[in-house]
Amino acid sequence: MKLSDCKLCPMLVSTRSRIVSATGTFKTDIMFIGDAPGKEDDKEGVPFVGRAGKVFNRILEYLGLSRETVFITYVIKCKPMEPNSKKNRQPTPQEMLNCSKWLELEIKKVKPKLIVVMGSVALEKITGLRYIMRHHGRAIKSERHKCYIFPSLSPAATLYDPTGTNEMLKVDLKKLKRLIKWLRS
């Protein structure tokens, strides 16, 4: 089965506009994994567009990276919405399990030195750890993925709680920038 043919999650299939495929390059040492697509991602079929995408683009710029030089994906590939609503919701464990095949294939193909997980869903899926606020900003050596994992806040979080999350994200990004420099030296 190809990703474009996926119908494993009936609720997501019934509400999605598009499957949001990964972007960037497989020839990179850095991979960014977000939780799940948002409204604009669902419309365009591209990860991190819309308002959160603008924040993400500024993050990449600060790090001296671009969308073309990294790999960008989500834990799940379809926008999870509340039934009979346009509101986002957390992906269910079954949805994450159904999409894990695609995510694992992406990780195997990229073979990154560094995976930046952005958000609590991505943190839990990749590391098994919970509570992003407890773990953000600290590099974790992953034997399973044979790389470093760097948990950080989702770019969307800065839109919903700019007072608290913007400063935390700035601190995370300074640490992430140093880690990237060290990994590439």
Task: Summarize this structure as a short list of keywords or feature phrases.
185 residues; alpha/beta; 6-stranded mixed β-sheet; 8 helices; 14% strand
Write up what this structure looks like.
- The protein is globular, with a radius of gyration of 15 Å.
- The chain has a six-stranded mixed β-sheet with strand order 1-3-2-4-6-5, sandwiched between helices.
- With 185 residues, the chain is of the alpha/beta class.
- It has eight helices and six strands.
- Helices cover 45% and strands 14% of the residues.
SSE inventory with pairings:
Elements (H helix, E strand, L loop, with lengths): L9 H6 L7 E2 L5 E5 L4 H6 L5 H14 L7 E4 L18 H18 L3 E5 L1 H8 L4 H4 L4 E3 L4 E6 L4 H4 L1 H23 L1
Parallel strand pairs: 2-3, 2-4, 4-6
Antiparallel strand pairs: 1-3, 5-6
Number of strands: 6
Give the terminus-to-terminus CA distance: 40 Å
Which range does the strand content fall in?
5-15%
Main β sheet profile = 6 strands, mixed
Count of separate DSSP helical elements: 8
CATH structural class: Alpha Beta
Order of helices and strands: HEEHHEHEHHEEHH
Low-confidence region ranges: none
Overall mean pLDDT: 92
Main sheet: which strands, in order across?
1-3-2-4-6-5
Assign the CATH topology: Uracil-DNA Glycosylase, subunit E
Helix percentage: 40-55%
Please compute the radius of gyration using only Cα atoms: 15 Å
Overall shape: globular
Structural classification: alpha/beta
